[in-house]
Hints:
Layout: E1 7-12, E2 15-20, H1 42-55, E3 61-64, H2 71-79, E4 85-89, H3 93-105, E5 112-114, H4 118-124, E6 127-132, H5 139-148, E7 149-159, H6 162-165, H7 170-177, H8 187-205, E8 208-218, E9 221-230, H9 232-239, E10 242-247, E11 254-257, E12 265-269, H10 276-280, H11 291-304, E13 312-313, H12 314-321, H13 328-336, E14 341-343, E15 350-353, H14 357-364
Parallel strand pairs: 3-4, 3-6, 4-5, 6-7
Antiparallel strand pairs: 1-2, 7-9, 8-9, 10-11, 10-12, 13-15, 14-15
Helix pairs in contact: 1-2, 4-5, 5-8, 8-9, 12-14
The chain binds S-adenosylmethionine.
Amino acid sequence: MIRDLSLTITKEGNTLLIVPANSEKSGPASSRVPVFYNHAMEFNRDISVVLFNRLLRDGSSFLDGLTATGARGIRLANETGKNISLHLNDGNPTAIELARRNLDLNGVAMAEVSCTDLRKLLIERRFDAIDIDPFGSPAQFISLAAPAVRNGGYLCVTATDTGTVSGIFPGACLRRYGTRAIRTPFYHEIGVRNLLGFVAREAAREEVGIEPVIAFYADHYVRCIVRCRRGAGNADRSLKNIGFCTFDQNSLERRFVGFQEEGQIGPIWTGSKCDADLLRNTALPANLGSSDRISRYFELLAGENDVQRPHFTVDELARKAKTGPPKLSALLEMLGQTGKAHPTHFGPKTFVTDVEVERILGLMK
Ligand SMILES: C[S@@+](CC[C@H](N)C(=O)[O-])C[C@H]1O[C@@H](n2cnc3c(N)ncnc32)[C@H](O)[C@@H]1O
């Protein structure tokens, strides 16, 4: 019962939200609260608002399948400027009570609300877009969610089991995602590509192909939004992006390859991680808390998509070259004279390039 909770009001974008008063202001929030709300996920929800402003049409249906306070779905109804047919669902009755209060607070009158196991809903209904934002791993929901998205619609998935999806915990990664992994200096990228690869393989079982709109790492989670296309041919086409990753700890060489050999990471998504044109051409509303950060992310994601190879960090290469780390901008300029080179969203000292490691090390000396 929400009358037993201590509540407060917060604002994200143009949306007011009643949330538990003890909700944390930053970092991962606890799942052991009566209703979950994590202010640090505002960036994640802002990106949904920005992209779905472009991707949804009037009348599109959107299922916020694990809605908690209703934050994401209500923000989409309130801020995309689209007349969407919103469905909020959560298995926790207290969360649903709070989500209803938040719908009222924001004058979102037409939403459908349910309190059921998301897996049941996904078997029974179809939507133009479905968001899955669980505690930890989304693995159990994907094979049900992919066929529940209408042809040409969108599946949005957050994974907060970052250590597992990124291969830091190889046993859990194999159990949960069916992916063999080792710890690498570029493990956040493995997390993003493992999530995309898992979604693609689970969707393919249901004869659904996927095309990434965006896939990224931020704060403590990985996230993707993919377009779903029905049909065996589309599933086959998306599986062409599944491959493996080689990483030689001595030479630091790394590549995506088509077939797995002993010690390689995979299966993971080795193709394009985003719709670069869409990200470059999406206008950002000024009122969002994280407009500047989104703009930086979109620019980096679109740029790094130019090269499909795991990223490097300046520090790992400097250690190998036994030299001080160069300024990233200076290194990128030198690399740009030999091949392609772009900074990435994975961190301020990261970049992707098609230049051989030996050559990069030579330039750093
Ligand atoms: C991380 S929270 C969702 C946060 C929310 N999307 C947001 O943006 O604030 C996960 C929610 O999933 C709900 N949940 C977990 N397993 C579920 C299931 N199988 N069916 C329905 N709801 C479930 C929990 O009650 C919880 O509210």
